[in-house]
Each structure stands twice: as structure tokens, then as C-alpha cells.
User: Fold this.
Amino acid sequence: MTGNTDLIENLEEFTKVHHSILDAAMAIGDLSQMYGELLAYTGFVEARYPAVHKEAMLCAERIAQARKDRELGRDVG
Assistant:
């Protein structure tokens, strides 16, 4: 009987892991779809409003540089 109990517990644990992996895979699929939509929207904005797109890219670069500067400041300080 102990063998059956162990088997059932193993199957239950396997099922939990399987469902966790399935949930993660679905989340990755959802993120991939959102990323594709974001790229499509970025392309639309770039084509339709090139000046807005250029300013947004410059702003993103400034934000990234500010983050790097803060991180370097933390490392040094």
C-alpha cells in the first residue's frame, strides 16, 4: 500500500509541476504576442509620426543613460 501512496503523491507532484510549466508557457506566449503588437505599434508610430518617434527614442536613451549613471554611482559610492 505504501508503494501506491508514493506513486499517487508523485503523480500529484508531477501534475502540479506540469500545470506550472503549462502556465509559464502560456504566459510566455502572451508576452510574445504583446511584444509583437508593441513592435507593430512602434512601426506605425514611426511611419505616421516620425518626429514623435524620434523624440521618444531620444527620451528612452536619456532614461537608460540616467539609470546607468545611478547604478555606477551606487557601485562607486
Summary: DSSP finds two helices and no strands in the chain. The mean pLDDT is 90. The radius of gyration is 24 Å. Residues 2-48 form the longest helix (47 residues).
